């Protein structure tokens, strides 16, 4: 089993997750736990408290979702809590909460 802890900078580029996917494929791990502060939300409707209109601000790039699908990764918290809105970070400037930490 491989464990990988990540901290990504805010508004990480799509290229970062494409490179990460390549690295994870090279690990060839039978079991992988990827966790960390992704500094973005996978699904804004469920992972952000946004009060003012819909926004894609802080949404993880499509390459993150592609990586999850291609490597058969599961956001275990969201899997076990499909309808619960719960957050890990508060942004004072945006006056909103977000779930930017994933396992």
UniProtKB/TrEMBL annotation:
InterPro entries membership: Endo/exonu/phosph_ase_sf
SUPFAM superfamilies according to UniProt: DNase I-like
Gene3D superfamilies: Endonuclease/exonuclease/phosphatase
Superkingdom of origin: Eukaryota
Region (Disordered): 41-64
Protein name, as recorded: Endonuclease/exonuclease/phosphatase domain-containing protein
């Amino acid at each position: 089993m491989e464990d990988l802890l990540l901290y990504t900078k805010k508004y990480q580029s799509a290229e970062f997750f494409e490179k990460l996917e390549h690295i994870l494929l090279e690990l060839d791990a039978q079991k992988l736990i990827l966790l960390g502060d992704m500094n973005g939300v996978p699904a804004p409707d469920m992972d952000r408290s946004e009060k003012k209109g819909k926004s894609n601000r802080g949404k993880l790039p499509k390459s993150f979702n592609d990586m999850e699908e291609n490597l058969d990764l599961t956001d275990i918290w969201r899997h076990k809590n499909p309808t619960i809105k719960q957050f890990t970070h508060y942004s004072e400037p945006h006056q909103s909460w977000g779930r930017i930490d994933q396992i």
